[in-house]
Design a protein that fits this description.
With 260 residues, the chain is an alpha/beta fold. Helix content is 45%, strand content 14%. Strands 3-2-1-4-5-6-7 form a seven-stranded parallel β-sheet, with helices on both faces. Helix 1 links the parallel strand 1 and strand 2. Helix 1 packs across helix 9, helix 3 runs parallel beside helix 4 and helix 4 packs parallel to helix 6.
């Protein structure tokens, strides 16, 4: 069933998006913005049932179809089940936003194997698992947009968070590889690389007045991003306005990290 394009050049209305980690933070902001643009949404979550339910209700209030599906996307079988359930309900998947992630760190000589594995499994393997499950669907359709939420840490590294930086740098290289591989099938793949964002993930650091001030000094625009500031560029990369953009890393960091 091909979606009706009711939204002119943007090409979002009537499409179906899967957003991992969609119950809170950046993911939830993406869900709401997609719903505002007329896209139907499958919101993936792992633990927070109430937040997922609230996000679905808000999206549905925009007049679109929205459902929440619980799955640990770091496990390939669960990622595949998420895709299977989505297809049962919607028959297609137009947009995949790989947003689920964690931010934990330690000095490299004190980092546990468990912390390393957990970070790489969720951030990088989870991205691979979702793409592995979704790409065959997009190939059959001859259309797809994949947006991977990486980080400035994946571009410049991050002291005491080498595990996180490695996972995010891996996402960027993975996206560039997929852009070359999947372009002939009508599938665009891009990354968005946020800097500091006011979400639960960074709440501990941002709630410390001294650390907050030191962070703020590094951001030329003079403020920490809100989740909505990141959602806009993500949704842009799904739209027809970005149909000739693939293999790119869109930096959304207020000028704090200037990467070409």
């Amino acid at each position: 069933m091909k979606p009706e394009n009711k939204n002119g050049l943007s090409g979002l209305s009537g499409r179906l998006a899967v957003v991992t980690g969609g119950s809170r933070g950046i993911g939830r902001a993406v869900v709401q913005l997609l719903a505002d643009a007329g896209a139907n949404v499958v919101l993936n979550f792992v633990n927070d049932n109430q937040s997922a339910t609230d996000a679905v209700s808000t999206a549905q209030s925009r007049g679109v179809k929205a459902v929440a599906i619980k799955a640990d996307i770091s496990v390939l079988q669960e990622a595949e089940k998420l895709v299977e359930e989505t297809l049962k309900q919607f028959e297609r998947i137009d947009f995949l936003i790989c947003n689920a992630g964690i931010w934990k760190g330690a000095n490299v000589d004190a980092m546990s194997e468990e912390m390393w594995d957990e970070t790489l499994d969720i951030n990088l393997k989870g991205t691979w698992a979702m793409c592995r499950a979704v790409v065959p669907v997009m190939k059959r359709q001859g259309f797809g947009r994949i947006v991977i939420v990486s980080s400035t840490a994946g571009q410049r590294g991050e002291a005491n968070y080498s595990n996180y930086a490695a996972s995010k740098g891996g996402q960027i290289s993975f996206a560039k590889s997929l852009a070359s591989e999947l372009g002939p099938f009508g599938i665009n793949v891009n990354c968005v690389a946020p800097g500091w964002v006011n979400t639960d993930m960074s709440a501990a650091a941002l709630s410390n007045p001294q650390e907050f001030e030191s962070i703020l000094k590094l951001i030329p625009v003079g403020r920490v991003a809100e989740a909505e500031d990141i959602a806009g560029p993500i949704v842009f990369l799904c739209s027809d306005w970005a149909k000739h953009v693939s293999g790119e890393v869109l930096n959304v960091n207020g000028g704090s990290v200037l990467c070409g």
